[in-house]
Amino acid sequence: MKNTQEDSIFRKKGFFIALYSCLGVVAALAVVVTIATRGQYDTNQDMAYYNEEAVAVGYDQVESYLAQADDEAWFRPRQQPTPTPAPPPQQEIAPPQPSPEITPPASSAAPAQDYYEDEDAEVYYQPDDTHMYEQAVQEVVEVAYFNAFTESDSMVWPVYGEVVMPFSMSQFIYDPTLDQFRVNDHMRISADEGDPVRAVADGRVVAVGREARRGHYIKIDHGNGWATTYGQLMENPLVSEGEVVRSGQVIGGVGRQTIFTSLDGTHVHLRVTRDDEPVNPYEWLAAR
Q1: CA count, 13 A, side-chain hemisphere, 98
Q2: What is the pLDDT of residues 247-256, one digit of tens each?
Q3: CB 241 within 8 A of CB 155
Q4: Least CB-packed of 17, 32, 77, 225 within 10 Å?
């Protein structure tokens, strides 16, 4: 009876030992599977992260980053220098020969006594070809020279109208706008607003601007110490500083008078000087 009880007890203990052993094995397998699965998950997460970065970061961003990472310059791949091709051998080019059939005319150059030289004019290169030589000389004559005004010449009228205020430097004349008697170093010629204003003689424009008294104005140098100034003009002139103009060429238009000449109506202010001294324009204007 005693042996039967002891066998029953041992059989119960063996059952529990086997049960606990199985549970231990199962637990160990669960831990191993969990670690393996977690490692695979982390690996997948890392790959997804890197794949996402690879898609999000463009080539230009990588290049920009490498350009700024001076401390990590050793990560950059070295660029192989591009070999420079050897220059082709230069061939000697013979200079152009003048045509034997055409000779420059003797009158191509402008005589010094008949033209006034512009000191700021561009110097033209004289080529060997005769045709180009003639063309270059003609361009120099048109740009650098103009007929200088002399005492035997006369001036054209800038506009055709009544003289509303004459030139007077020897005696006082009445100025209705300023309501005073004074000398006057220019002449005022009546004209309608917008009428064309012409250069009185050949010359070169030396100033374009605006003053409170004479309004918008243009000053032209005519050579030999002669110069003219045109005032009370429109805002936008038709010529610019340094430009050569011809006698009778339209240089602008009649504008509105300033407050200093408001009672004279629309007109052109014409001032003529010789060696910077004002002279009477009426004495040099051609008869109409």
Answers
A1: 13
A2: 999 999 999 9
A3: no
A4: 77
Q: Show the CA angle centred on residue 261, arms to residues 256 and 263, nearest 5°.
A: 95
47 CB-side CA count, 13 A: 6
pTM metric for this prediction: 0.52
Give the Cα separation of 186 and 211 in Å (integer).
Answer: 15
Angle at the Cα of 14 (from 9 to 20), degrees rounded to 5? Answer: 130
Integer-rounded Cα Rg, in Å, for the chain is 50
**Any idea which of 92-101, 178-187, 228-237 has the lowest mean pLDDT?**
92-101
Amino acid making up residue 79: Q
The answer as to CATH 1.10.3720.10 being correct for domain 163-283 is no
Comparison of pLDDT for 7 and 145, the residue scoring more: 145
Q: How large is the average pLDDT for residues 34-55? A: 49
- The DSSP secondary-structure symbol of 119 reads T
Q: What is the pLDDT of residues 20-38, one digit of tens each?
A: 777 777 777 776 666 655 5
Q: Which residue in this structure is represented by tokens 């005319």?
A: 105
Taken in order 25, 27, 30, 34, the sign of the CA dihedral is negative
Query: Of the ranges 1-5, 64-68, 84-88, 160-164, which is most confident?
Result: 160-164
Closest CA to 213 of 269, 159, 273, 168: 269
Distance in angstroms (rounded) separating the CA atoms of residues 280 and 271: 8
Query: What one-letter code names the amino acid at 21?
Result: S
Length of the chain: 288
Q: Which residue blocks in the chain are alpha helix, DSSP H?
A: 2-56, 59-68, 130-144
